[in-house]
Design goal:
The chain has helices at residues 10-31, 45-57, 115-119, 148-163; strands at residues 61-62, 65-68, 77-80, 85-89, 104-106, 109-112, 128-129, 132-133, 136-139, 165-166. By secondary structure, it is α+β, with helices and mostly antiparallel strands. It is globular. The termini are far apart.
């Protein structure tokens, strides 16, 4: 009967195993989502207070995704999932918006989406709630376009109506 030989000295095996575990932990930590950066916009003190109150009342889940941390140095907003839905409060009106533009009413909140985003389901979409002020934008990753966008907008409607004033009319 032959004895099976192990390669390398006995004293080095623990070092190699430990190094492998440290490397694996580092890789796994790199895969977990970190903080999301929310753009900060020039807001009046009143709008900033409104946005902060809104953010405090946002749900723990959105579109079936868990809320995650955002960079404290960014603007008022929240994020859910990976890739993240990202809500930004206090965004400016879109440059291409005209009073005759159509928007979608979802549970009483009018959301405007540019035509180019509507036509290509492979791109992220950023609906803006123009019927409420300060304006709120929700970045919806393309991964959630087919079933998550309407669900997410519907879940946000009650808290937006509770905290935000009436904005532009939605056609």
């Amino acid at each position: 009967m032959h004895r099976r030989r192990r390669l390398g000295p006995l004293w080095g095996r623990g070092v190699v195993a430990s190094a492998a575990l440290v490397l694996l932990a580092g890789v796994l930590a790199g895969c977990s989502p970190g903080e999301v950066r929310v753009d900060d916009h020039d807001l009046s003190d009143a709008d900033r207070a409104t946005c902060e109150a809104l953010v405090d009342d946002l749900p723990d889940t959105l579109g079936g995704e868990l809320r995650r941390s955002v960079d404290a140095d960014g603007g008022p907003g929240a994020a859910w999932g990976d890739p993240a839905y990202v809500l930004t409060c206090g965004v400016p009106a879109p440059a291409d918006y005209e009073p005759t533009a159509e928007c979608s009413d979802v549970k009483g909140v009018g959301w405007y989406v540019t035509d180019d985003q509507l036509s290509d389901l492979r791109v992220d979409v950023t609906p803006i709630a123009l019927s409420r002020t300060p304006y709120v934008e929700l970045l919806v990753p393309s991964r959630y376009r087919t079933d998550g966008v309407d669900r997410a907008l519907a879940e946000l409607a009650p808290v937006l109506e509770e905290h935000l004033a009436t904005g532009l009319d939605c056609l």
